[in-house]
Fold each of these.
Amino acid sequence: MKDVVMRLYDEVLNQGRLDVADEIIASTLSTAPGDPPGPERVKQISTHIRSALPDMHFDVQDMIAEDNRVATRWTLTGTHTGTFFGAPPTGRPIEIRACVIFEFKDDQITNLWPVIDTSALRATVS
């Protein structure tokens, strides 16, 4: 399971290889009501972040696995050159920290629960 999560961060998010999401994200994954399910939503999120932070990089500091879940703690860095979740570009470096718990079935991510440090985001983009 840890290797699948690292593929998400390294290949899909850091390298922009969106096709990998089709392999590792279950078609039933849902992030919010009204959002497209499965790998398409992950691709949308990745594309949105990259449009705002073209040099984005996720650095995973911790990863813990138990039963069918993996928990991660990571830092996202990049240069804020595009609109980012409603915040206009500042041209400044940005750093966001978060923890995400992933749930698995049949070697695919079926659910995820992110907890993002929004106070750091507000301070960085204001």
Amino acid sequence: MKIRVIDIGLGLLGWLVVAPSFAATYAGSMENTQWQVDASVFACQMRQDIPLLGEAVFMRRAGETQRFSLTELNRQLKPGQAELFSLAPRWRSVGEHYSMRELSVGDTDSVSLDWRDSQQLLQELIEGRQLLLRGDSWYESSDVVDVIIEPIRIRQALAEYQTCLSGLLPVNYDQVRRTSILFPGGTDEFDDSEQQTLDNLARYVLADPYITALVIDGHADGAGLRADNLVLSQKRAEYVVNYLIERGVPEGLIEVRWHGERYPIASNRSAAGRAQNRRVTVRVDRFEPDPEALARAN
């Protein structure tokens, strides 16, 4: 749906053909609104505070794709369906506003969009267009709530955000906290295909100061003698340990154990099951810092 307007000086929402019975509008002022960037190797955020409501955030976490979220600290939007509009830039005397799509308003983040939709929103903002989200009011079903996301000063923030993206780690903690390395039958060396997994693990551990331990467990399948399998599982675990140490992981963080064929995760009666059992697992333990304590320290 596209609506051509000749004069948009009637007010921000004057272009709508039928005005709502009551609309509460949440938007920042042109003087004070800005995009802020939070940058680290673990995550990049570009966010805009929306006074009296919450914030709009573009975020990409290490090892994941970008997402957009609208988070309400002061709940105003009712869960359900809402509509997203793109408004012509303020500086144009003639412009075109249009409806982009319907959105689902959730119970936690009001709106959450995947990388493709978030990129579309970002492109609209780069072009100087405002985004308007209109949904039902949490308090009165007959009323509506309008949320405005401004493009003001986004280009400078975007350059900082993109610099952050280029420095992200390849993985995040959730992706490395439980890692399995598989081994061919009868050997204590893993295939080259497993190296990237361990390289990414090592990079994460070296970057995160809150890692407390790496618990490494060697395993074998049920083929062969039990005593031989115990020795083989030890050699596999030690091979992974040495690989990580060579890539800078402190030896003092590592605890190593081996179990032979004692803990299968699949049936040893099939080749596929035995392939899953020939493994070394790495558990990454991490101390979760108290956000309030971190804020006081900084």
